[in-house]
Amino acid sequence: MTTSTSGVSSVAAGKSNDAARLYAQQIAQELQVGVHQVLATIALLDEDCTVPFIARYRKEATGTLDEVQITNIRDLRERLVQLDKRREAMVKSLRERDLLTDELLAKLSASNAMADLEDIYLPFKPKRKTKASVAREKGLEPLAADIFANKLQNLEVSAQAFINKEKGVESVEQALAGARDIMAEWMSENPTVRKQLRAYWSKASTIASKVAKGKEQEGQKFKDYFEWSEKVTTAPSHRILAMFRGETEGMLKLTIKPDDEEALIIMDKNFVKGKGPCNDQIEITVEDAHDRLLAPSMESELRAELKLRADLEAIRVFTRNLRELLMAPPLGEHAIMALDPGFRTGCKLVCLGKQGDLLHHDVIYPLMDGAGEGAKQSKASALRKVMELAKKFNVVAVAIGNGTAGRETEEFMRAIDWAAVQLEEPQIVMVNESGASIYSASDVAREEFPDYDLTVRGAVSIGRRLMDPLAELVKLDPKSIGVGQYQHDVDQPALQSSLDDTVVSCVNSVGVELNTASKQLLSYVSGLGKQIAANIVAHRQENGPFKSRAELKKVARLGPKAYEQSAGFLRIRAAKNPLDASAVHPESYKVVEAMAKDLGLDVATLMSDTEARKNIDLSKYVSDKIGLPTLRDIVQELEKPGRDPRAKLEPMKFAEGVHAIGDLYEGMKLPGIVTNVTAFGAFVDIGVHQDGLVHVSELTNKFVKDASEVVTVQQKVMVTVLQVDKDRKRIALSMKR
Fold first, then answer.
1. 582-621: pLDDT as tens digits
2. Where do the domains of the chain lie, and which CATH numbers do they carry?
3. What is the spatial distance between Cα 399 and Cα 295, in angstroms, rounded to a whole number?
4. pTM for the complete prediction?
5. How far apart are CA 691 and CA 697, in angstroms?
């Protein structure tokens, strides 16, 4: 765990030092951190350092910024770069058309918001044919300019001079109409007015929906929005996305607008000055400019703003839930039995070794219909097989998928008299199997188990999820795990980026066992990626287990930079050097060796001797390359090398005798586990194959806007059944009754 301040003077994204400092100042102000911290972070990012590496191993350089702060710096810098790219494109276009003035360049340079930048550029933006451009072709711009400046006393006479039948201006009224078209465009392109109207629309608009004509039956899933309206300032993400989806599917008609009268007053204040014939024309133009040009533009902008806001919230919900799921407590390396339950088709059974390797697979039929001799024999056969296999493979836990027949299979397993066959009762755990079927049909599963069918692969996945949820779930597209909110409606690149950040953060915070990790898990380790991860696995298969972290340097394409970024997050449990099993970075091994030597110990003894570590004087080891934050991390790591930050596994046990939605009744109190958290509430698995919803209003007696303020995915809760709708398969629950 060493730090380096080299590269702090590097430029950001290829910019000059002045530009880098300007970025840093803007970012520091927005994020409330030091400019030097931002500059150091940007420099490290530009040196291809990853967020987890910077957060853990470059604390002195960044002033101990955490992953969230570093990610925010990265993302905000990228937005500023995109803003500059757009500004540069505008300047280039204006210069090429000989429209760039010093004043215009100064305005563009001073703008720090994309909306303001676009407003400044709008009057000069190349346009398709418009009413105003047609009027200009007819030579009416001078007339429009005089009216706009309130210079004319006799409009009839002034307009008469612009009648030109060859150009299509055959009357005074046509001349004035053309002038109004030009003025309307000027009004709609006025940056001050656009900014004022944008602010008004953002705070005063209402989003309203109604059912599309003839879609009353087809659009039943949007029934709540057949007649709905609310202020955009308070509309939550899930309702905005629901209404937008209803509109996209043609089931709803949406309007988003404020009071038009107030908008017209804002425009009048900017353009209508006094009385007279010119102002009469301006007043007419104000209404046209608003209705025809500004209102549609403002609605389009507000729609985009609402979508962005809703997307960001939905992505936040998704990533938070995903983190909780990935960081779920693992059982660890134990021999286990896993069951993918079923009635008619039987339960797919697999036995897995301590490393998750498939040792045996079979099918049992403990849940055959009826009470006849066939059903009894089937159950007895299943019982014998389970006990024989449990004994043969020293099974310490049983993972059972929570899908169809899950509860019945759980009861069958719990009813077994394990002591009768001299076996200690294994831990029986219900496992969320969401996405297991997707894994079983995936290329990853086919590559891992080319000689087995989907049912065996699915059961293996269920078992491995119990052993290590993180290691198994990284093989899936996070969007298939089922913890999102309108995930297919949001900006997909933004969602994917956020999910990738979350998976990377989780993988690196836990650390990865180098000699057992799959290439999918390794690909998320800082500095590696898919190709190097595959090369590591290939090297392992050809040369046997890695004996030290240093051996990583022999892997194809794993150069010095990749080694620097990844080594601290990779563990070798049985390595000769005990530090290879810890989160201490190889670049800090000499510091630890110096600590041990100064105490007259070897490194292994220093790591095991609590009293000896208390005698370490950290100030002795501070240098220009390592400071106290990193030294404290090192000592903390020596206390519990390679410690897993995840909680201890506590299996969920559902209420006995409650298997299906028909077993529920109002007022019933049940244990459950939270499977998904959204802004509007939490979904809870109560063991009936259909999650119930605890609406945000039923989470607590205190007012909360967002369910995440109260609960998290994987949290165990007690709930009360409020309502059961068997036909629609809906269960309303409460946590406050």
1. 999 999 999 999 999 999 999 999 999 999 999 999 999 9
2. 12-124 (1.10.10.650), 131-320 (1.10.3500.10), 339-467 (3.30.420.140), 661-734 (2.40.50.140)
3. 58
4. 0.90
5. 18
